[in-house]
Design brief:
- The two termini are about 25 Å apart.
- This protein has eight helices and no strands.
- It has helices spanning about 5-25, 30-35, 35-40, 50-60, 65-85, 90-105, 125-135, 145-155.
- The longest helix has 24 residues, at about 5-25.
- The chain is mainly α.
- α5 runs antiparallel to α6 (about 90-105).
Length: about 170
C-alpha cells in the first residue's frame, strides 16, 4: 500500500471512532427519553415546508419514541463497528449516506433556519454524508479491513463489500 491508501484506511477507522462516540451518546437514557423533543425542536423558526416535514417526523416518532431512538442508536453502533472493522463497506457507506441525510433533514432541520448575516453552519450531518460518498468512491474498504478477506467469499454478493475481486 502506498501512503494514500494507508491514509484512506486510517481515515475510515477514525471516522468509525467518531461514530462510536455518536452511538454511545445515542444509547444514553437522557437522549432516548427526550428523542421526540429533539426532533420537534428542529421546527422552530423554519419555513412552512420544512416545519411540515419535521412535524410529520415528530408525529411519527411520537408513536413509539423509545423504539425509534433505539433503532437510531443500533444503526449508529453498526456503522461504527462496520467502519472500524471494514465489513461490508459499500453497504455501510450507502446506509451512512441515507442516515446522515435523514439526520440532517429531520432533527437538524436541513441545518436551518437560515438567517442572512447570522447563519453560517449547515449542520454536521450533511458533511458526514459527503464523507460517506468519498469513502464509497475511494473504495475505502480495501485498506486495513476485513472486506479484502470477505469479498471473494460472498460470491455474487461481493458488491456489498469493497475488497478486490479477481476475475478468471
Amino acid at each position: 500500500m502506498n501512503w494514500r491508501e494507508r491514509g484512506v484506511g486510517i481515515a475510515r477507522i477514525i471516522f468509525g471512532l467518531v461514530w462510536v462516540v455518536a452511538a454511545t451518546l445515542q444509547w444514553q437514557p437522557q437522549f432516548q427519553n427526550t428523542f421526540v423533543a429533539q426532533v420537534a425542536a428542529a421546527r422552530d423558526g423554519q419555513p412552512a415546508p420544512i416545519m411540515g416535514w419535521v412535524s410529520f417526523w415528530a408525529n411519527l416518532v411520537s408513536v413509539n419514541p423509545l423504539l425509534f431512538a433505539r433503532i437510531l442508536a443500533t444503526t449508529e453502533s453498526a456503522l461504527a463497528i462496520f467502519l472500524i472493522l471494514c465489513l461490508f463497506s459499500n453497504l455501510t457507506s450507502i446506509v451512512g449516506i441515507f442516515l446522515s441525510l435523514g439526520i440532517w433533514s429531520i432533527p437538524e432541520g436541513f441545518g436551518g433556519p437560515y438567517l442572512p448575516g447570522q447563519t453560517t453552519d449547515i449542520g454536521t450531518a450533511f458533511p458526514y454524508a459527503i464523507l460517506f460518498v468519498v469513502l464509497l468512491c475511494l473504495s475505502a474498504g480495501r485498506y486495513y479491513g476485513l472486506d479484502q478477506w470477505l469479498t471473494p467469499r460472498l460470491g455474487r454478493w461481493g458488491f456489498l463489500a469493497s475488497g478486490s475481486i479477481r476475475r478468471k
